[in-house]
Design brief:
There is one protein chain. It is built from five helices and no strands. By secondary structure, it is an all-alpha fold. The radius of gyration is 29 Å and the shape is elongated. Residues 1-26 form the signal peptide. Keywords: Signal.
Length: 152
Amino acid sequence: MVLAFVGIVIAIALGVVALLRPAAQAAAPVEAAPQYAEQQVARAKTTICDDYDKAFKTVSAAGSLPTDDPTLKFAIPVNVRLATQFSANYLRNALSQNEATPSDLAAAAQKLPSTWDEVVLAQIPGSQNDDLSPTFTRLEAAGDKVMQACRR
């Protein structure tokens, strides 16, 4: 009789433990990468390539204004920094709004805004272009990759 009672107590204890133990959670399903139609990919690619071209031309134009006027010699670098910052934000926004951008183009284009930010942050306190040489090299390499991806 004692054995039966011990057996019942053990059975009840195991039942309580089983009820209170958290259920095994199923592994979260792996989300597949979104699939886009060829037209969506082509439109996103065109948008990013056009926006990169627009940003590049804006920064280039802002820095190519020749002058001997001392006031403008001060204003031109400020204008270049503004153009660079706005171009970085413009491209960042374009990338976030065009999720169908081909991965090679998106990867290359995503490097540009942060590198442009680095340039602006270094130039504001007065860093010289020689100090920024490695950053300019990265910027040029990223731009080249964007242009290559746009030509494909």
